[in-house]
């Protein structure tokens, strides 16, 4: 593909030879002749001058520092994401049902779908057009999966789960297991049947080994465009708004409601029955105990890394914080009382 052809795809201005052949894509440090690279984060600007790439996607402000051909765009990161699809390997599967697959009664499988080796479809499963179910996956009875979905190997989708179109589910994910519902009575925990299901709308991506529990009474819902990283726990009855993205190892307790276009960093923990407004950002390792009802806010909690000796001192002081506060309040009270007494004496 030529540089000019790439420029048309990402609506870029060509600075250099539009006929230059581009054969691959890489980062600035590892790029070689024939590769195209990109610069978006200023932290990597120092690598621009020495890159071996044949061309770089960048902003107009960075063009002056580029030693090779360039594609100038307003949003280099989005342009890179777009063109990366051109160079991504095309992993396809032939339409049809593998002879080792186990297919239940009254299933509806579109003739363009691909059912891989050792897949199990229980009764009344519906599989849409061009959807791929990779090896070893298990789809429970009455589940529905829409068109153009990709279910990677060894995914488990429980009974009654509803999945829309253009959804990607990575290996090891479990969708629709029972939520963590138990009622205490006379010193024992008694299981509560989970009567809802999981509804996954269009264009959602679910990372490897992520678990999404079915609802207790209401359904657990992932709205259109939601992106979940690996090893995330989504509790029963959770609702995640459109285009919200959640990084790895985060945990959402039951009945959490997250708004649209939110961004959750890695290892965020959210207590149950909490509501979060639209466009809220939670930095990595933030713990949310109460609802956040104001949109467009950024929150963080916890402390960053410290040298061990400093961390030990700070933790020791933290344990005494309440005592220090009480002493400070008492001292302020004495100062105020003394000030009032002196004023009275002056009169």
Set out the fold topology:
Blueprint: H1 3-10, E1 13-15, E2 24-25, E3 35-38, E4 55-58, E5 69-72, H2 76-87, E6 96-97, E7 102-103, E8 108-109, E9 114-115, E10 120-121, E11 126-127, E12 132-133, E13 138-139, E14 144-145, E15 150-151, E16 156-157, E17 162-163, E18 168-169, E19 174-177, E20 182-185, E21 188-191, E22 198-200, E23 205-206, E24 211-213, E25 220-222, E26 227-228, E27 233-234, E28 239-240, E29 245-246, E30 251-252, E31 257-258, E32 263-264, E33 269-270, E34 275-276, E35 281-282, E36 287-288, E37 298-299, H3 308-319, H4 321-346
Parallel strand pairs: 2-3, 3-4, 4-5, 6-9, 7-10, 8-11, 9-12, 10-13, 11-14, 12-15, 13-16, 14-17, 15-18, 16-19, 17-22, 18-23, 19-24, 22-25, 23-26, 24-27, 25-28, 26-29, 27-30, 28-31, 29-32, 30-33, 31-34, 32-35, 33-36, 35-37
Antiparallel strand pairs: 1-5, 20-21
Tally the helices.
4
- How far the N terminus sits from the C terminus, by CA atoms, comes to 91 Å
Oligomer description: single chain
Strands in their spatial order, largest beta sheet: 6-9-12-15-18-23-26-29-32-35-37
The amount of helix comes to: 10-25%
Overall pLDDT confidence: 95
CATH architecture heading of the largest domain: 3 Solenoid
- Give the DSSP E fraction (strand runs of 2 or more residues): 25-35%
* Relevant CATH superfamily of the largest domain: Hexapeptide repeat proteins
Task: Give unreliable regions as ranges.
Answer: none
Specify Rg, calculated over alpha carbons. Answer: 28 Å
Describe the biggest sheet?
Answer: 11 strands, parallel
| CATH third-level topology of the largest domain | UDP N-Acetylglucosamine Acyltransferase, domain 1
Query: How many domains, as an integer?
Result: 3
| Molecular shape | flat
Which class of secondary structure composition applies to the elements? alpha/beta
- Given this structure, which CATH class of the largest domain is correct? Mainly Beta
- Number of E strands: 37
């Amino acid at each position: 593909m030529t540089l000019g052809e790439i420029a048309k795809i990402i609506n870029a201005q060509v600075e250099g030879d539009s006929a230059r052949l581009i054969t691959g894509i890489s980062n600035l440090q590892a790029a070689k002749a024939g590769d195209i690279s990109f610069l978006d984060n200023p932290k990597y600007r120092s690598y621009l001058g020495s890159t071996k790439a044949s061309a770089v996607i960048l902003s107009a402000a960075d063009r002056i520092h580029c030693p090779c051909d360039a594609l100038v765009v307003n949003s280099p990161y989005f342009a890179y994401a777009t063109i990366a699809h051109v160079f991504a390997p095309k992993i396809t599967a032939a339409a049809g049902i593998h002879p080792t697959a186990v297919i239940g009664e009254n299933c509806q499988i579109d003739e363009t779908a691909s059912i891989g080796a050792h897949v199990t479809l229980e009764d009344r499963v519906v599989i849409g057009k061009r959807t791929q179910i990779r090896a070893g996956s298990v789809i429970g009875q009455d589940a529905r999966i829409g068109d153009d979905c990709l279910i990677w190997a060894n995914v488990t989708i429980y009974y009654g789960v509803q999945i829309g179109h253009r959804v990607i589910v990575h290996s090891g994910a479990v969708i629709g297991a029972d939520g963590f519902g138990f009622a205490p009575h006379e010193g024992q925990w008694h299981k509560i049947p989970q009567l809802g299901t999981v509804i996954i709308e269009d264009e959602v991506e679910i990372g490897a080994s992520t678990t999404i529990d079915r609802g207790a009474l209401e359904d657990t819902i992932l709205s259109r465009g939601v992106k979940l990283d690996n090893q995330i726990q989504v509790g029963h009855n959770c609702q995640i708004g459109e285009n919200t993205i959640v990084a790895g190892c985060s945990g959402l307790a039951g009945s959490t409601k997250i708004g649209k276009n939110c961004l959750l960093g890695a290892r965020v923990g959210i207590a149950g029955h909490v509501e979060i407004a639209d466009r809220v950002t939670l930095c990595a390792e933030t713990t949310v105990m109460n609802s956040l009802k104001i949109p467009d806010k950024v929150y963080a909690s916890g402390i960053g890394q410290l040298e061990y000796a400093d961390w030990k001192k700070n933790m020791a002081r933290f344990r005494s914080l309440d005592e220090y506060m009480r002493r400070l309040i008492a001292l302020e009270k004495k100062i105020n009382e003394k000030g009032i007494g002196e004023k009275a004496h002056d009169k």
